[in-house]
């Protein structure tokens, strides 16, 4: 399962890429490749436990 | 390696790290991510004097994918003349993913061997247990792959000595000393000197420093008889406020500095000889 605030898009309005990239709707910016593993819950990651932005947005705290 | 090696003009092995696994085009659109664009930049760097390329694989979205290392290696071999390929086995993926870096066909001549964890954000930490380190080192020996031991902080120098003592790495040892960021050794000239002083005998070392520390600390490495790694994996800027337009731009600057300081750039063949790659 992926973060509900994750989208794949080619542009943020200012920049355009050839391929879709991970975009965080909370931060309103593209996500780094390392962080995208958290967004996509790869390996042992879970966005609701391991993403500071998600926790802050949801009114919670970083675990 | 020492200042005496600098005075003797021992050739510098210039490694280019074109892509990495931490950031990509979202940070600098000139970071190459796909096999053909990586290979094209590597070829430009090879022409400028890079002898080794450190390789990461990315998927179609620019995200980390060890399964793409084969395609990147193939593209580099197609486009380049002789550059030494060094695949990553690092990152935050589990061991089963990371070991793919030494299971390409043919195997790379070199591979990185992270000697400990480093942190990103609040929750990301790379998983480099002693068990995993030893497993990778053993398989590299079996496959004839030269490890570049990645030392992210001073404590991990202990692992270099341990691997050497246990015969899990072969002389001459090759160590990459890493400075900068919030997880690596604090980037000061004093710390470079200290780390170099604590290396085992018969060790060749390389300096990697992130961001604005790349230029001064890699230059210091040249003066200390060491080798140099530069590229967009470690630093996105040519100077303050000016993003690098390519890996070649960073390699060209370092190549010029090395030559001005009186050391030659090692060819890939000379790098193999110096590192004991056969």
What does this entry look like structurally?
The complex is a heterodimer of chains A (63) and B (278). Chain A is of the alpha+beta class and 63 residues long. Chain A has one domain. Helix content of chain A is 27%, strand content 27%. Chain A has 3 helices and 3 strands. In chain A, strands 1-2-3 form a 3-stranded antiparallel beta sheet. Chain A is globular. The mean pLDDT of chain A is 92. With 278 residues, chain B is α/β, with parallel strands linked by helices. Chain B has an 8-stranded parallel barrel with strand order 1-2-3-4-7-8-9-10, surrounded by 8 helices. A two-stranded antiparallel sheet of chain B has the order 5-6. Chain B has a two-stranded antiparallel sheet with strand order 11-12. In chain B, strand 9, helix 8 and strand 10 form a beta-alpha-beta unit. Chain B contains 10 helices and 12 strands. Chain B has one domain: Aldolase class I (TIM Barrel, Alpha-Beta Barrel). The interface between A and B is medium-sized, with 28 and 22 residues.
Q: What's the total number of strands of chain A?
A: 3
> Spans of chain B with pLDDT under 50 lasting ≥5 residues?
none
- Kindly state the mean pLDDT of chain B as a whole number? 96
- The N- and C-terminal alpha carbons of chain A lie at a distance of 19 Å
Tell me the number of helical segments of chain A per DSSP (H or I, 4 or more residues long). Answer: 3
- Describe the strand arrangement of the main beta sheet of chain B, using strand numbers: 1-2-3-4-7-8-9-10
Share of residues in helices of chain B: 25-40%
Distance between the termini of chain B: 21 Å
| Helix/strand/pairing category of chain A | alpha+beta
Question: What oligomeric state do the depicted chains represent?
Answer: heterodimer
Rg over alpha carbons of chain A = 12 Å
Summed over residues and divided by their number, the pLDDT of chain A gives a mean of 92
Query: H/E element string of chain B?
Result: HEHEHEHEEEHEHEHEHEEEHH
């Amino acid at each position: 399962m992926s973060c509900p605030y994750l989208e794949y898009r080619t542009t943020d309005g200012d920049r355009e890429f050839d391929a879709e990239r991970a975009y965080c709707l909370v931060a309103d910016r593209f996500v780094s490749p390392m962080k995208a593993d958290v967004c996509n819950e790869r390996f042992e990651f879970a966005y609701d436990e391991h993403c500071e932005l998600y926790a802050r947005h949801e009114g919670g705290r970083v675990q | 390696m020492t200042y005496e090696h600098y005075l003797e003009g021992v050739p510098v092995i210039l490694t280019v790290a074109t892509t990495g696994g931490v950031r990509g085009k979202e940070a600098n659109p000139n970071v190459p991510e796909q096999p053909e664009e990586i290979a094209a930049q590597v070829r430009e760097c090879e022409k400028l004097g890079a002898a080794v390329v450190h390789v990461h694989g990315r998927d179609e979205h620019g995200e980390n994918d060890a399964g793409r290392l084969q395609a990147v290696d193939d593209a580099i071999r197609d486009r380049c003349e002789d550059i030494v390929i060094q695949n990553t086995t690092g990152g935050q993926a589990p061991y089963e993913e990371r070991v793919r870096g030494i299971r390409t066909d043919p195997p790379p001549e070199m591979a990185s061997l992270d000697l400990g964890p480093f942190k990103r954000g609040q929750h990301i930490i790379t998983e480099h247990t002693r068990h995993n380190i030893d497993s990778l080192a053993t398989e590299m020996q079996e496959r004839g792959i030269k490890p570049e031991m990645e030392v992210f902080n001073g404590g991990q120098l202990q692992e270099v000595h341990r691997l050497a003592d246990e015969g899990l790495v072969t002389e001459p040892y090759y160590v990459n000393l890493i400075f900068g960021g919030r997880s690596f050794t604090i980037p000061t000239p004093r710390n470079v000197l200290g780390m170099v002083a604590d290396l085992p005998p018969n060790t060749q070392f390389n300096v990697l420093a992130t961001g604005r520390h790349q230029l001064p600390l890699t230059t210091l490495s040249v003066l200390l008889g060491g080798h140099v790694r530069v590229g967009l994996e470690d630093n996105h800027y040519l100077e303050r406020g000016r993003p690098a337009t390519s890996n070649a731009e960073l390699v060209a600057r370092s190549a010029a500095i090395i030559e001005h300081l009186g050391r030659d750039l090692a060819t890939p063949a000379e790098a193999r000889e110096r590192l004991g790659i056969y």
